[in-house]
Amino acid sequence: MLYYDIKILFCNTSILHYENTIDAYDTTMLYYDTTDITMLYYDIKILFCNTSILHYENTVDAFDTTMLYYDTTVLHYDILILHYDIKLCFDIKMLHYDIINL
Fold this sequence. Notes:
Layout: H1 2-11, H2 15-20, H3 22-34, H4 39-49, H5 53-58, H6 60-72, H7 74-101
């Protein structure tokens, strides 16, 4: 859960915006190639894809296949976001319920 929270916080972007702009992800990859600032952001995505960072560093072609794999996991990621949002909403409602019961 902590890892998931960090990922959500670090991405700091609208899921709807991400779904509508595949090109934005491609430019993010270009941005990653030119700067070290997004290294953590990229590492989190790689971990989510369950891919070895070392493997990526040693093979550029592996990066291309990782991108393909990542694209197929977007739906799974969106479902996790939805699940997280529902759980968060539920937790808030439960807290509200607990306060009312006090």
